[in-house]
Each structure stands twice: as structure tokens, then as C-alpha cells.
Amino acid sequence: MHIVVCIKQVPDSAQIRVHPVTNTIMRQGVPTIINPYDLFAVEEALRLRDTHGGEVTVLTMGPPSAEDSLRRVLSFGVDRAVLLTDRFFAGSDTLATTYALATAIKKIGETFGAPDIVFTGKQTIDGDTAQVGPGIAKRLDLRQLTYISKIDSVDTDAKEIVVERRSEAGVQVLKSQLPVLVAMLEGTNDLRRGTLEEAIAAARAEVVRWSAADAGIEDMQKCGLRGSPTIVKKVFAPSARSEKAAFIETEDQVPAEALIDEIFKRQPALEDDLSALASGY
Amino acid sequence: MADAPKTPPAKPQAGGRAASKKELPDHFKPYKHVWVFVEQERGQVHPVSWELLGEGRKLADKLDVDLAAVVLGPEGAETQHVVAEAFNYGADLAYLVADPLLRDYRNEPYTKAMTDLVNTYQPEILLLGATTLGRDLAGSVATTLKTGLTADSTELDVDDDKSLAATRPTFGGSLLCTIYTLNYRPQMATVRPRVMPMPERVERPVGKVITHPLGLVEDDIVTKVLDFLPARDAATSNLAYADVVVAGGMGLGSPENFQLVKQLATTLGAEYGCSRPLVQKGWVPSDRQIGQTGKTIRPKLYIAAGISGAIQHRVGVEGSDLIVAINTDKNAPIFDFAHVGLVADAIKLLPALTEAFRRRLSPHNRDKLAS
User: Alpha carbon of A14 to those of A17, A31, B160, B275, B319: distances in Å?
Assistant: First the structure.
């Protein structure tokens, strides 16, 4: 079985700060990490490989420095890492990104064997769109299974997969056919740490580096800014509310009563609602 | 591989994305009207669909076009009821694909139904809820149609030249950006539940309903639904639709102190939540996260304890009627959008507040005050 996992190197958004005066992003020194949701996809791929045999190829699109993320997943024991990097990709929105990634996955299939499963994480923590997985599936004509909380079974002979998919009202148990795209939810498995041997091997391993041309991408009009139907018109900080919070000032060391007075002064109906609720207990 | 687009995309000009707005290609000019996808699961409409009809109404009025509801579901009374409700929430007309194959959500038949409708009736704007269903569907519909899709918008408007301007947080929620879909149609966006207010429901007669065939048989659909396990009530929070919400942030200092938030919530009969770092640290499960990447809330009262108030969080709570913030840092950004502020240590204040609320709300005490 051949499994391809798409990962993304992202800024650690918890550490991004906005300059308090200029309202610009302070990107200097913000560390990059593997998109946390993608790690669950990598882990699931490795588990399936360990059970059913085969290989795991991890693919990322990004700047040359994204190689760091690939080295890290190599240390977990993935078999192959492919870095898709080209200045033509700059400014890609999700539609352009899925064109590049889908073409590269096709090339991976021709070079190393057609994938049975393509994994992604639920979404990235920088874009947060959850659109790239469905986009890749559509472009490669794969069935798509998103928000997957559990892979119940994979039958490599019958080419069948059974998964649990979280919906708003419950869980769907779905059966589909390989090849398939699976977008994994977070917290779906326990992540492994690589062994020391794997870490050493990963440092020495070759990362396959492809330009757009290497990946078989022929139509540059579909890449980067040119291939992106969505255009960011402006980026801005939200305007402050005209009126700042009214601060509760009191002599009391723990001004709980004063705060409650203020709440019920502003929302008189709420006191009755809450009291009715409280008396119901 | 993907088909070539019918027209080459606009060549980017110097000056970046903002400068590349051009005349819409001729074949997109007939695209008109605002559509809202009405999402249902087992006969239950997700409320975000009505919220979107409310927002779609404003856009349609500005553009002076019709507002249409798109209903996909099985044949029968349940689906007909959903269509009727769409008119009560402001739709001018409805597009309906009713077929037994649409009973449960599956990507393949839903994507086909939606893309067929778009290609036949050509909407200018298509809005969907940013739910697990809506995001799954929107991603494949937009890729099939090779058009732009803005995820999780927090504000929608139409520009002077009638383009859709979709605003959403960016850079991990630290800034906002406004996104246009240029030279492609329809312009698609998803919006999270509770970002837009619920419109008033007004009983109206069922108007024009345009039905369209699905054009698939079960054998055409590879993915099968083996089972559906409804969520246990205990496992799902009513956070998005709660009247009172209490939430904690990093100011609580430790996972143990998060109990203080839960205790106050219990006393108030409220739901509890948290800011993103607490989920990332594993202190609180992700379905309790409030903010752009978590739940959006619109309670009557929101109490934020030890939350600094990054934009990520702000966009998730701005619709609250009354925001009360407790934070030791008087310069914390949360005080820029809270209505009532208290500079205090939440760890000390929360137990006192819980106790004070308990006294205040106890029936015994109320009777005494009344007499």
C-alpha cells in the first residue's frame, strides 16, 4: 500500500504578535512548526503502513526551509519526503495550491507508485480554510472523507475503507473505495516520537526536491497569484470600539457584588432568567 | 487533471493583488442572484442556514436581485417543510433537488446537485455555513467550478462595483483581511454559525420552487453510509447557542484553576468555554474553544476570565450582548471590546463571584428581598 501525506510548515500562530503601535505583524523570530493537525494524519499513515505494509511518502509545498518539517517526519519513520518548492507558487490561494499539490501527487504516483490513500490534516492553523483536502480530492477524482475521527478498517484486497466521520449531529460510519482522500481530525491517535536511530537516519536521508517543472506542472497560469481567483484586497487591524470597557472601581478587595450589580443593571431581564433557572435546581 | 479555465486568469499587475480587479468576462455576466445553501441533517436544519438567509437578504437587497434558498434532501414532507421554512426566513425563491440518495450527507451526490444547479441557474454569490457539512461541500463545489471560496467569513458586504467583499481573520487571527473573488463566478463564502444574527421569522406563503433532478443512481455513488450514531447530549455542548457563557484563558495559570470557570458556569446554568491556548495546551477539549478557529457565540452575557482578547478570540464573541472581562492587565486588548471591565486576578475573583451569584440567585434570598 502506498500512502501520501500532505503536510504544511506554518508559523506558530500562538507566537505571532501584532505591533501595538503600527498594527503590523511582527513575523521576526516567529518559529515555524508542522501544522499540528497534520501530525495526526502522518501518525495514521504510519500505523496503516505498519499493519498493511507498503510505504509512506510525505509531501509539502513551501519555501526551501520547509525541508526542516520533512526531516522531522522522516525521523518518525516515513519512507520518503518530497519538497515542492518554486517561486511560481508564491501567492497561491487554495484553488492554486490544490492544482500544484494534485499535480505533484500524480507525479509521485508515476514515480513511486499510485497512492491508495492521500492524507491531510483537518485544516491548517494559518489559513484555517479546510479547503485544500477537498480540492485535492476533486482534482485527482478521489472520494473524499473529511473530519475523520477513526479509521475502522482498510481492506487492501477489496480496496475498501471504513471510517467514522464527525458530523454536526453525530458520527457517520462510511464505507468507500480506495484510492481515497482522508482528512484527519485532531486527537485521533497518540503521536509517536522517532527513535534515535531514526533521527540519525533522517538527518542523512535525501529529501526529494521538485520544482514546478519537475512535478509535471505545465500551466503556470494556474499557479501562484495568477491561478488564484481570490484576491486579498486589504489587511487591517479591527477598529477599536468607540467606547472602552466601563471599569468597576470599588473599595472592596474582591468586588464580586459590585460586578454583579453592574451586570444586572445593564441586563435587568437576565436576573429573572437566571433566578428562574437557579430555582429550578 | 484539471480542465483549463474558460478564460485565462487576469495577469497580475505591479502593485499586487489589490490592483488586479478587472472587467468580468462576458460568459460570467449573466450570473445573478444570491444563493444560500440550507443545510439539513436528518430533517433538522442547522440554524446557521437561517442566519445566512438573514445576511443574504441584505446582500440581495443591495444588489437588487433575488435571494434563493438551495435545499438538497430526500423526497417527502420533511424536505418540503425545510423549503417552506426558507420562505419564512426571507427567501424569494427556492431551488430544490429532492432525491432519496440525498437522505444522508455524502460528498458525491451533494457536490453534483449543487454544481448542476449553479451551472444551470448561475448565481452571483453562493453562501454556505462553515460546518463540517458546509466546508466539505464548499471545498469540492468551488474546485469543480474553479472559482474562489473564502472560508469562515466574519463580515460580508458588496462593493461599489457590486463585488462580494468577504472579511475574515488572517495570520492566525491577529489581523483581518478583505477578500474578493475576481473574474470568476459564483463568488463563494462560508460563514461560521452565530457570526451573523438570527433573522426574524415571519410566516409567509411558499413562493416559487424550482426543482431539479439529481441525475444519479445509487450505483454511481461509491461512498456508502453504513451507520449513523447520533451524538449523546452529554458529549455535545450547546456553546454556540447558549444564553450565558463563562470562559477562561491563560490568566488562570493552570489546568486545575479551570475548575473555577466550570463552577461559575454551573451556578449560572451557563456553558463554559476557553481561549485557543488552553486547547493547544491540552487543558480543555477543542469543542470548548471560543474564537475564529473554535465556536462563535452570541450570548446575552459573556464572562471572560483571564483572557487577553486576541482578534482570534474577539471575532468569536463580538456578537455577545454584554461582555464582562476580568484580567490583571488593564491594557489587555479584551478591554477594547468588553462592555464591563474588572482589573483583577480571575483566580481570586471567580470563587467570590460564584458565591455572590449563588447568594443573589437563590430562591430563598429572592423571596426575602421581595417581601
Answer: 8, 10, 36, 11, 24
Q: What string of pLDDT tens digits covers the 281 residues of chain A?
A: 999 999 999 988 666 666 666 556 666 678 899 999 999 999 999 999 999 999 999 999 999 999 999 999 999 999 999 999 999 999 999 999 999 999 999 999 999 999 999 999 999 988 889 999 999 999 999 999 999 999 999 999 999 999 999 998 899 999 999 999 999 998 899 988 888 888 898 889 999 999 999 999 999 999 999 999 999 988 888 776 777 888 988 776 778 999 999 999 999 999 988 888 776 64
Q: Which of B147, B180, B337 sits opposite A231 (nearest CB)?
A: B180
Q: To probe the interface with B, which of A9, A18, A19, A95 has the most B CB atoms within 10 Å?
A: A95
Residue B222: closest C-alpha in chain A: A176
Q: Do A273 and B182 touch (CB under 8 A)?
A: no
Peptide bond into A179 cis (omega under 30): yes
Chain B hits for A96, CB-CB cut-off 8 Å, are: none
Q: Which residue has the cell 461541500?
A: B137
Which residues of B, range 300-359, sit inside 8 Å of A by Cβ? Answer: 300-301, 311, 314-315, 321-322, 324-325, 330, 335-344, 348-349, 352-353, 355-358
Say what the ipTM of the complex is.
0.91
* Terminal Cα-to-Cα distance of chain B (whole angstroms): 78
In sequence order, what are the residues at sequence separation of 6 or more whose Cβ sits closer than 8 angstroms to the Cβ of residue B236? Answer: B287
Distance CA(A134)–CA(B141), nearest Å, equals: 9
Cell of B341: 471591565
Q: Report the predicted TM-score, pTM, of the whole model to 2 decimal places.
A: 0.90
In degrees, rounded to 5, the angle at the alpha carbon of residue B97 between the alpha carbons of residues B92 and B103 is 125
CA distance A139 to A135: 6
